[in-house]
Amino acid sequence: EPEVTQTPSHQVTQMGQEVILRCVPISNHLYFYWYRQILGQKVEFLVSFYNNEISEKSEIFDDQFSVERPDGSNFTLKIRSTKLEDSAMYFCASSGMVYTEAFFGQGTRLTVV
Amino acid sequence: SQQGEEDPQALSIQEGENATMNCSYKTSINNLQWYRQNSGRGLVHLILIRSNEREKHSGRLRVTLDTSKKSSSLLITASRAADTASYFCATDTGRRALTFGSGTRLQVQP
After folding, report:
1. A7 CB near a chain B CB, below 8 Å?
2. A18, B32, B58, B63 from B46: Cα distances, Å
3. Cβ of A42 and B102 within 8 Å?
4. CA angle A28, A34, A39 (to 5 degrees)
5. pLDDT tens digits along B39-94
């Protein structure tokens, strides 16, 4: 069964460093998303991406964040200068069409020290 | 309450019993989705119900949607220990973003 894959599963980084979280969405999907879940809190929407551009973003997704689809398969989230409060589980998701099921990856646990 | 709030927050039942979780939301939706999350793991999509649907079944899962009350319920019948997880409702309001609730932690005792 097709699935969304994320790498790495766990990343530890020093405050102020740049991190890139990687995702391979399901191959025939057109809509891509990043969400995050701070430990013990709700899953929060960060950004959606369609047709090589951001279609929606939340107030969390500030200038420190960027997304890219560098090739036909990868979808990345970059955090330019990490802060302690960026520590969270980051989930990538994809869907085939708008307003349909979103399939999530297993997540990348980001720890900023 | 916020968009997509579940109750109860925690539920403990015996294997074989049914588990019912509720979700309330505030704004109009295109669809409502239920997800399961095992501790520290990814989100697994369970079922999607559209705003023009009232009930949907998938295996041991039954979801209802009442748009007049802005509420949904997830029923898991004949629960198993493997159903132990957190369950989240997520609303799609047409913004190409899902809004998740706080979740219900379900514990099924063997």
Report:
1. no
2. 35, 11, 8, 10
3. yes
4. 135
5. 878 899 999 999 999 999 999 999 999 999 999 999 999 999 999 999 999 999 87
